Amino acid sequence: MDGGDVSGKRSLIRSGTTVDQMVRAIGDRIVTGSLRPGEKLDEASLAARFDVSRTPVREALGQLSAMGLVERRPNRGAIVAMVTQEYLASMFESMAELEAICARFSAERMTGGERRSLEMEHQASARLVQLGAEEDYEYFNTEFHTRLYRGAHNTHIYDMTVTTRSRLAPFRRAQFMLQGRLAKSWQEHDVIVTAIMRGDGAAAGKAARDHVSIVSEASAVFVVGDRARANA
What we know:
Layout: H1 3-8, H2 19-31, E1 40-41, H3 43-50, H4 54-66, E2 70-73, E3 77-80, H5 85-109, H6 112-124, H7 126-131, H8 134-151, H9 155-174, H10 181-197, H11 201-231
Antiparallel strand pairs: 1-3, 2-3
Helix pairs in contact: 2-4, 2-9, 3-4, 5-8, 5-9, 5-10, 5-11, 6-8, 6-10, 8-9, 10-11
């Protein structure tokens, strides 16, 4: 695509968007294949379409570059990067271990109030699954995992986990486009919550690791599809 193509894709953007919204909008379209590997991301066109200056556009592209979704070339601008299965697998492998640590520590360190809040929010989210409310469940999912990170009561681990999660955010969101994924995600959360409520650190850690591994497999569907389109 060229600069004109970007400005013409009205579904990509809303006027006055923040940097975070730009990262989300562009990242989601890269992951789902609407923007294909090698396609140019023109700063001027994106700035006009988002109704912002080029500075926040550069910041958004910089964040997407850190995620591995955009390749920035000296004096040649930015293009959509090719995300390999190997790269994504290594990221999710790290994420799985970090989440396992957080869940284990949460089972051992969460206060009574934190445990009750976790369980209440988890049970309430079942309604979102019944309604098929993907966007609302995706927001809840982020909050659910953040509760685990905070429940570990370790600032350094929290920072590392949040940073790693942010780089995988577009792929973790994409999983909810798959048929039946909301219900499966809730069931996987239920195993984690059950272990935390009974203070079983080992079981909570295993459940969290297994959960992220399943998310990784679900997300890989998009990488495989994107590679096939790029090679077509």
